[in-house]
Structures are given as C-alpha cells and as structure tokens.
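Sample log: Very-long-chain (3R)-3-hydroxyacyl-CoA dehydratase.
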Amino acid sequence: SFTMNMYLFVYDLMQFCGHSWIFTNMIIRFMTFGKDSLADTFYSIGLVMRLCQLLSVLEILHILIGIDKSRLLPRFLQITERIIVLFVVINSQEEVQGKYVVCVLFFLWNLLDVVRYTYNMLARMGIYYLPLTWLNFSLCIPLYPLSVLAKGFAICVSLPYFESFGTYSIKLPFPFTFSIYFPYVLKMYLLVLFTGMCFIIQNLFYERMAHLGTGNIKNKRS
C-alpha cells in the first residue's frame, strides 16, 4: 500500500542519513587527522552507529509482517552478527574500542549501507539506475566476507580482556556446578559466524542473479 511504502521510504531515508553522516565523518576525520583519527573512531561516531544498528532490528519485523519481501534468515543473521559484535564485544570492552579493527569494521558496514539504503529509497519510488543496482548487488559480495574477517579479528582481540575482567562469565552458586566462561562462548560463536558467512554469500549471489539477470535488466531499462 501507499502508506507502507511511504513508511519504508522514511525508514530507509533515516538509515541513509545516519550511515551517510558516519561515513562522511570518518573520511573527513581521516583526511584531517590521519592515522590519529582511527584510534578514537568509536568515541566520535559510536553513539550514532549504535542507534542505526538498533533501528535495523525493525527490518526483521518488516519481513515477518510481509511488507519486505527479503528472505528472513540471511537478514536475521546479518543483523544479529552486527548487534553481537557491536554491543557485546566492542561496547563492553573499552580497551577494544580504540583498536584499528573497529575503524575498518565501521567503514565496511557504512559503505555497504550507504549504497543499500540509497538503492532501497529509489526502488520505493520505482526508480532503478542500472549502475546503482549493479553496485548494490555486487559490492556486498567481496565486502561482506571482509567484514566477517574484521568481526572475527575484533572477537579475537577482545578475548584477553574478557578473560582478564571476567565480563559476562557466570558461575552459579551451590548446589549447581555449572558455569559459563564467556571467552569459550565467543570462540564457539566464531564457528557460527564463519559458517553463516557461507550461507549468506550464497544468498548474495542468488539475489544478484535475481536482480541482474538479463531479463530483469531489460525490464528495468524499459
């Protein structure tokens, strides 16, 4: 309906503005301060980044209620990966926030999202530019695996701090003889992260073929 389409357009516009601000801020800071800007990336843009990622949870709801025709599982995995790494790993350990990998991760996320939300906004209005369509469904194929590698590296960097401070590790009192050692949880999650990457990359290729097939290109040109 027109109302739902307008709502999705406003949602995409809000996300586009947020990620564009982050992406532009990172570039300007790097051009102004050079490598010195990398260490405090989280402190300068972390709040807006967290707001954008929290807002992205709505995309799961959009798929569940049927106003977004994307596949649920791949989108769910992509969103939860970011939520876990950003809020559980980076946000909880101040020592990790100053690492260069955080800047790399934020750069990859925002580059992908600026393109994706630009494409989505135009698509809501029935506007399809072939170069933008190609970029949206092609750029993610090399950059998504790079972002997964950056996530995995961020988790590995955080492990010594989780071990030292005992963050999120739980030891249940007597009579229970059960404890949760959070670094082990993160190591197991690394396996899930890279297993899910294979599934998501397969879905990205499927979406690219669906949108950039010869028939679809001819239809959008006409």
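Observation: Strands lie at 170-171, 179-180.
Observation: The CA atoms of residues 169 and 182 lie 5 Å apart.
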